[in-house]
Amino acid sequence: MGDPTITGDLIDRIGHALLLSAGMFWEVGWSLVLGFLISAVLQVAVSKERMSALLGADGAREIALATLFGAASSSCSYASVAITKTLMQKGAGFIASLAFLFASTNLVIELGIILYLLMGWQFMAAEWIGGVLLILIMSILVRRTYPKRLVEEARCIAGAATTDHEHHHGGHAEARGFFGRLAATQTAIAQSFAADWSMLWKDLFAGFFIAGFLAEFVPDSAWRQLFVANADSGTQLVLNALIAPLIAVVSFVCSIGNVPMAAILWGGGISFGGVLAFLYADLIVLPLLDAYRRAFRWKMAAYIGVVFYITMVLAGIVMDLAFTALGYVPKPDPNIRAELTHFAVNYTFWLNLAFGAAALYVAWVAARARRSHG
Question: pLDDT at position 99, please?
Fold first, then answer.
């Protein structure tokens, strides 16, 4: 028989870990709904066929357009990979396609909102500015090492396969009149919202769950030791930027799901640039590396993984240096755990109530459309 005191303490800690996870979700729940709605509207307004037609080269114009399209697209890493594959299949430039991939996971509005709420405006600004920097660094690296044969093979593979993540929007063709078109557009937005949520909810909850348990069971002293918090600032800057993406690789969590974990790491002593490198690294988590392999084969997956890792490390270092020089690096919040377990009837409560109702309505519209189409 085990010691009942130890068992009781373990149960209490598990309960507190779950409470931390719930608190993280509560703080950002409304912003997730808002982001999904904005993303759904923009996805309906701009088709992938139109994007492909505008991204047929790797010039500055095409890369800039890909960045704008990505920022207006889905924040789901897995959906973004599927769209990137479609863009390449339809003739978009390789660098432009990768720029879309970076922008769709680092420049989306909901990610910035969640970072602002959990970690402050500095991280929100660093994420968005760093997202542009990621695309610039990646573009230079790929131009210097352009794998022409791998790109040609990837296009052939993408053209021969079909994607499992296409969003289908029915009803536009049959719609007649203003109200008919309005109803069809509403249905398409609801379907896009539901498709993004169905792909992302497991990763989101996994992110909150993992962050809650790590916050409870891994002491700050362990994080400080891992990220050499006692080293001089230069050494910590470089090592944190190198280590943090590797932590993200094995966390299996997507861009938004990484934010709660990043908040815990920030409170645990990781450097500003290390946190950013961790956030940037959502595109090289193990499931996505496997998605690249399935979409483009091993050699291209390895090439993308190496280029992305180098890009994320360099961007994290540059952003740390820039924000440190400007005096914009915030102080870690030592009370983050207590704040996440404090629930009150405040603006967060009312926003969650309002956007929760909106999410239920959109889900109902999507379900009704599915029933009407058999």
Answer: 94
